[in-house]
Design a protein that fits this description.
Layout (H helix, E strand, L loop, with lengths): L1 H30 L3 H4 L3 H22 L6 H28 L2 E7 L2 E6 L5 H10 L12 E4 L6 H13 L13 E2 L4 H7 L11 H13 L9 E6 L2 E7 L6 E5 L2
Parallel strand pairs: 1-3, 2-5
Antiparallel strand pairs: 1-2, 3-4, 5-6, 6-7
């Protein structure tokens, strides 16, 4: 039994170390709050953790019979590790493709943009026309302003495509992105009181009001906007004077 437990402990330690390195790097680089929540990344992480920290070491505990020939034991453990590696590659690739690249302000809302939202042709155009804000493989999340283009025909085409689902939204076109600071005057005009935001239920607003008051923030000031992403939403609260983000709350 001691031999089984030793194999189990070594397997668990090795799996935990690799998993911490990969998931920790993704979290610290791209998925810090609110990225992990808006991207619904936890179910992918859950699958990887289940396979690599629960199933893998447990199977090793089962198969690590000291009476087995060494070649057979090595084969069994190698098969388990292979499955773990496949699960880790799948999870890491999925998280890499869905990593947050931008938090955008456009029109009257905040939205976050994942790497998978951007098409290669749009990225190529952005690198030619707007290189300072174009995405690269090493890009970390940035806060940007995503206004419609000044050309009214192009703007109308984007709006119609977005509304009817026949085209891309402006937040998926980094060629039009501008520095966050340039959109601050527009942002200021869109801030709302918590009670005036229609995207949260009465119960959610009560919960958010409590959170705001606990943090010493004023729920009755025009200081908030909804942030959207992957079917989820959070409340972003700004300092009305400096327009710096003070907090982001999950309803």
């Amino acid at each position: 039994m001691q031999s089984r437990l030793r194999f189990f402990a070594l397997h668990l330690l090795g799996s935990a170390s690799v998993l911490t390195l990969v998931l920790g790097g993704l979290y610290l680089g791209w998925y810090r709050w609110p990225g992990w929540y808006l991207s619904s990344a936890l179910h992918i992480v859950g699958i990887v953790v289940l396979v690599d920290l629960v199933v893998g070491p447990t199977l090793t505990l089962i198969v690590a019979n000291p009476r087995k020939p060494r070649r057979m034991l090595a084969r069994d453990i190698a098969m388990i590790v292979t499955v773990q590696i496949v699960a880790l590659i799948y999870g890491a690739a999925t998280l890499w493709g869905g990593r947050p690249l931008y938090y955008t302000f456009s029109s009257d809302r905040l939205e976050f943009v994942q790497a998978s939202d951007l098409q290669s042709d749009e990225i190529a155009v952005a690198r030619r026309e707007n290189p300072s804000l174009a995405p690269h493989w090493y890009s970390l999340p940035r806060w940007v302003w995503a206004p419609l283009p000044d050309d009214s025909d192009k703007a109308m085409q984007i709006v119609q495509g977005s509304v009817f689902g026949s085209g891309k939204d402006v937040i998926d076109m980094p060629r039009y992105f501008k520095p966050w600071e340039a959109g601050v005057p527009k942002l200021s005009a869109q801030l709302m009181r918590l009670d005036d935001i229609r995207y949260f239920s009465k119960k959610e607003k009560q919960s958010l009001r409590t959170l705001l008051e606990q943090q010493g923030l004023a729920p009755d000031k025009r200081n908030a906007l909804t942030m959207w992403g992957a079917g989820r939403r959070v409340l972003a609260v700004f300092d009305p004077d400096t327009l710096q983000i003070q907090a982001i709350f999950k309803p």
